[in-house]
Write a structure and sequence with these properties.
The complex is a heterotrimer of chains A (107), B (304) and C (163). Chain B has 9 helices and 17 strands. With 304 residues, chain B is an alpha+beta fold. The chains are: A alpha+beta (107), B alpha+beta (304), C alpha+beta (163).
Chain lengths: 107, 304, 163
């Protein structure tokens, strides 16, 4: 996990699995079916926005966090770093996001 | 032809011979047994169920009977079998009938993946089905039994069988097993209800089986559209509380209550999402059956 | 966020998304900007939720957020048998709790991160919160008096198989 405050931070991207999620949302819960693993996930708006922040190409985790906070309408830094890192770790474990460097290395 | 058209002796002859072919909703079963006590009980509790025609395809060949050897005569046991295999440890012979009923449940739950199977009771009125996903201590069987004796048709006490092609619910109106205090509760609530003998000391306590009203059995091939999810919880002395439930929470609870959600993959996701989207979802806390039934009746009246 | 009217539409939409090679199947960002959260009640509401349904139950490795890790529930203020008007009051601000939240015994939860507890640990008892005049109790019977409870959101509670 890169240091969110470091000057040289790695970029992250969505995986193909994330781009093919099937979505169903109600209230503030986003339910996603992941065909690559046949799993069904339950995300809240924060998690869904973290994924969406990566939609248009590689960005650093700091940028993703800042974008998510902006869309949520909260102050920068209000989303706890520990909570954000937890989400990033889980989304990586689920195969929904990956480091751009790793993705290039695997090609 | 229904089971009741057979004499008790003819029924026993079939059970000990080629087997008794009987329809339970979308499933044809052939039941075999060498236990005379089971024949009497089957004659009583399966009386209105239609029999399977000789040329029909049988979905499950099941049996409940005494094993060979000493256990046939000493500390008698009864083994459930499916297609000639006995997947479970033997029961005492006194528990043969509940063992047969539970075994049939197992057959459906493990071998019917052409349907999405919710662990849920269901009742129907005017073509619309109300589903009660199971939860420990929720009292779904007691509530379901009370409803079907109060103007609702039984879809099933245990399985919400959803057909993937169109999302319709298929009936499986089998006997309803009541446990422990619920037996007396229903006996008081509807003295005219047909309840079989109580089996003491089973793995689930005391169990007795309620035979559904004849109308529910007669209409066992009539599908229904899911219209409500109600998550019941019986709480002693609690006031009635019927509250709308968030659909996201309903999805979670329905999906976790499906027997084969992970087997059907995206089909299950789509079906559960479609059902939850189309249904009104509620949590129900109750202590009085009459109050609960009145509240659920009102839901169906408001539906028009 | 796309509010699909039918899953068929969602499938068609995702097919288009896949063809273009972009997107998660969610709506355009502008739609999200239009739904800016106006009220965020504390870090618990902001914390990301990531739960996975697997094999008919939520994955044992999941963590879920807990709104309040430990709060006291007041006991009776018995005077000649009268429990008192605040008997069973959850001793926290009214705004900290919402309808649908669930009380569970605080000591039964297992932490798996800051402000998170494991979904694999199912509390032995639970009660949905009940709103009184200007405070909350654990259920209509005002359970858990003189105990400490944790408060879970309805979604978190459901993920643990309670509530």
């Amino acid at each position: 996990m890169d240091d969110l405050s470091s000057g040289k931070a790695e970029a992250f991207i969505l995986t193909p699995a994330a781009r093919s999620l099937r979505w169903q949302d109600w209230e503030d819960i986003y339910i996603a079916y992941q065909a690559s693993s046949a799993e069904t996930h339950f995300f809240n708006e924060t998690t869904a926005l973290i994924l969406q922040s990566l939609e248009h190409g590689p960005i650093t985790l700091a940028e993703a966090k800042e974008w998510t906070e902006a869309v949520l309408g909260v102050d920068r830094g209000e989303l706890a770093a520990g909570d954000f890192e937890f989400a990033i770790e889980r989304l990586q474990e689920l195969g929904l996001i990956e480091s751009l460097d790793e993705a290039i290395a695997l090609q | 032809m229904i089971v009741g058209d057979l004499s008790r002796q003819e029924l026993e002859r079939r059970l000990t011979g080629a087997g008794l072919g009987i329809q339970f909703g979308p499933f044809n079963l052939r039941i075999s047994s060498n236990l005379p006590s089971l024949a009497s009980l089957a004659h009583q509790l399966y009386e209105p169920y239609p029999m399977v025609e000789a040329v029909a395809i049988i979905d499950f060949h099941v049996g409940i009977g005494s094993p060979r050897g000493l256990r046939r005569w000493f500390r008698r046991q009864a083994s459930f079998s499916i297609d000639g295999q006995s997947p479970f440890a033997p029961y005492t012979v006194e528990h043969a009938f509940p063992a047969l009923e539970w075994g049939i449940n197992w057959c459906v739950a493990t071998r019917s993946h052409h349907l999405l199977m919710l662990h849920s009771a269901g009742v129907e009125r005017n073509g619309s089905a109300m589903l009660f996903p199971a939860s420990p201590g929720g009292g779904k069987s007691t509530l379901c039994t009370a409803l079907i004796h109060s103007g609702w048709r039984l879809m099933s006490d245990e399985f919400g069988l959803v057909r993937p092609e169109d999302g319709m619910l298929l009936p499986l109106p089998r006997l309803i097993p009541l446990k422990n205090e619920s037996i007396a509760v229903i006996g008081r609530f509807r003295p005219e209800a047909i309840i079989g003998p109580s089996f003491l000391g089973t793995r689930k306590g005391t169990v007795a089986h309620v035979r559904p009203p004849a109308d529910s059995i007669r209409r066992m091939h009539e599908t229904a559209r899911p219209r409500w999810f109600v998550f019941p919880r019986w709480i002693a002395n609690a006031p009635l509380l019927l509250k709308p439930m968030a659909k996201s929470q309903a999805f979670l609870m329905v999906a976790t209550n499906a027997f084969n959600y992970d087997v059907l993959d995206e089909t299950a996701f789509r079906l559960v999402a479609d059902m939850v989207r189309a249904c009104d979802c509620y949590s129900l806390s109750y202590s009085d059956l009459d109050e609960a039934i009145a509240a659920l009746d009102e839901l169906s009246r408001d539906d028009g | 966020m796309k509010r699909t009217e039918s899953t068929d539409e969602a499938v068609q939409s995702n097919d288009q998304v896949l063809a273009s090679g972009h997107g998660t199947g969610l709506d355009e960002t502008s739609t999200i900007h239009q739904r800016r959260r106006r009220l965020v009640r504390g870090a618990a509401a902001l914390a990301p939720l990531v739960l996975t349904l697997r094999s008919g139950a939520l994955a044992a490795a999941s963590c879920t957020g807990v709104k309040i890790q430990s709060v006291a529930v007041l006991g009776d203020n018995s005077v000649q048998g009268d429990p008192g008007p605040f008997a069973g009051k959850i001793d926290t601000d009214f705004e900290a709790i919402a309808t649908g939240d669930v009380c569970v015994p605080a000591g039964e939860l297992r932490a798996c991160g800051d402000g998170r507890v494991e979904t694999s640990v199912r509390p032995s008892h639970f009660q949905t919160v009940e709103q009184q005049t200007d405070f909350w109790t654990c259920g209509p019977q005002r359970d858990f008096k003189n105990q400490s409870v944790a408060i879970l959101s309805s979604t978190s509670a459901t993920s643990m198989g309670v509530g």
